[in-house]
Amino acid sequence: MNSGIPRIDGKGDRTWPIRVFATLDSTNEAAKEAALGGDFGPCWYRAETQTSGRGRQGRSWASPPGNLYASALFSIHDGHDAVLSIPFVAALAVAETTERLVPGSEPKLKWPNDVRLSGRKISGILAETGACAGTIWVVVGIGINVTNVPDGIDQAATSVASERGDGLIDAAAAMEVLAARFAERLSEARAGFSAIRSAWLERADGLGGSIRVRAGQGDQYETGVFEDMAEDGSLILRLPDGSRRPIRAGDVELVRRA
Ligand code: BTN
Fold it and tell me: Which candidate, 13, 25, 18, places its Cα nearest to that of 183?
């Protein structure tokens, strides 16, 4: 019977097994391969380095040693709400991890799921889902700059080490905090998107301000006011003509006032 509350395997477990590798092409790929082979975890894949780390929108994710590269693998039954909440669950878990690793910091969330400190990106999240033999599997890949900011990043970025001013935190320690925060937020998502949405909005970067959104793959941007996040996770953009446009997927740039 579908009670309306999604069943998430591994629910409430504070620590799923963490499968650690020296090198993988991509922790998302390794987790997806497992899912396609019928292994849905729940577990984490973590690599010390990745040779083909992947980012959103077909971009690559530079993965030198020192930073955290991890993917959660689990399955979901009966709950499409839970699927939509996953990227936001991950973003909240990363923000809370960052807050613990960098005491006194105030991580902000840039829609849909970048985590930033003082306007500089510290983490990226790539969530992927699929179905196999009637089971919905989910892979949530998370990269956190722990000891360094990789070269060649196309935007302002920072790391745990530079924000703390020391190198006392390593990727393994960051993983433990992240796994606990993720388990907690995922368990909360079982009751629906509402609490996750509210917590996300409290940390939203640029809410109420001007933003530029690139909704497709091209160079077409739309400018408007970031008015809200809808119940389905869409960003609500208020256009200059007064209309409200829901954005399901895209890249956002905050427009700073001169
Ligand atoms: C982004 O573009 O901001 C998302 C980056 C996601 C990177 C992480 S690192 C661990 C996991 N494995 C990958 O190949 N990508 C994700």
Answer: 13
For 158, 159, 171, the CA distances from 103, given in Å and listed in that order, are 15, 13, 17
Beta bridge partners of 212: 223, 253
Q: Which atom of ligand 1 is nearest to the CA of 53?
A: 14
For residue 59, how far is its CA from the centre of ligand 1 (angstroms)? Answer: 9
8 Å CB contact between 180 and 144? no
At 3 the pLDDT is 34
Choose which residue among 29, 57, 61 to substitute to test ligand 1 binding: the one with the highest number of ligand atoms within 8 A of its C-beta: 61
Residues with CB under 6 A from ligand 1: 26-28, 50, 53-56, 59, 61, 69-71, 124-126, 141-143
- Helix or strand run (H / E) with residue 197: helix 194-202
Longest dimension (CA), the chain: 56
pLDDT in tens, 140-197: 999 999 999 998 777 899 999 999 999 999 999 999 999 999 999 999 998 889 999 9
